[in-house]
Amino acid sequence: MNPTAFRATLLNILGNAFLFVIKLWAALISGSIALLSDAFNSLTDIASSIAVFICVKVSDKGADEGHPFGHSRAEPVSGIIIAVLAGILGFEVIRTGVTRLFTEEAVVVIGTFALCVPVITVVLKGFMAWHFKRVGREVNSPGITASAVDSLCDVLVALAALTGIVGARLGYPFLDPAAGLVIGLWIIYTGYSIGMENIDYLMGSAPPPDLTEEIKRAALSVPGVKNINTVRAHYVGHFIHVEIHIGVPKHLSTYDSHEIGKEVERRVEKIKAIEKSFVHIDPV
To answer: Is the CATH number 1.20.1510.10 carried by domain 3-203?
Structure first.
């Protein structure tokens, strides 16, 4: 497993575990539904961060007899797990908030510790979002990138919780469950976005058009390539496989045509997102 990815996934687990403990403690002391909802959010983050760790570790395994193109499809599975857990959590948070908003007049006691917890969350999660975004790009990991998006959303969730508990302290108790409703809706939206992105990876969707143009430029840069007849690319996990048909002069020997094809394969696979290219030779 890549050491940078390992450290990032470990930080994700430990950071979320720490936040869950202090949020739950503050929620039990204060009776705040916003803090309790945010604690549940962190509990889901712990489960999803463990899933990311496992899937990143599996996806890092090389090819074997049963998986000739490696295990890279494992990593988008972690994104799907995050999405499903987020959806379940979001609906539960909304249900709890609606119950508190319309059927209960709960006593909420907001102390200094309860006010500090969302601030701690904003600072820690803001750092985690920045770090995971950088690492995700560096190691080309959709699981870690999804964790970056999730951490950024947690910053907004913490701000909503802070608004709710400050409102409750100022004498507007309805703001606390209202903040819980906002948090629930945001969690569901985040889960949906992460889920759709990773479903595309698993479904083998095509890469962006600008990447296809980059593939064509790389192939045409090889001496002897006269034209590009076909380029088909799709995701295999979070990496891309490419099928490309190149035109070469028909009078070339099999050996020379083969060498041109191998050079095209080499240059296309130098593109960061490309894991494997398959080159077909067409006579011109």
So the answer is: yes
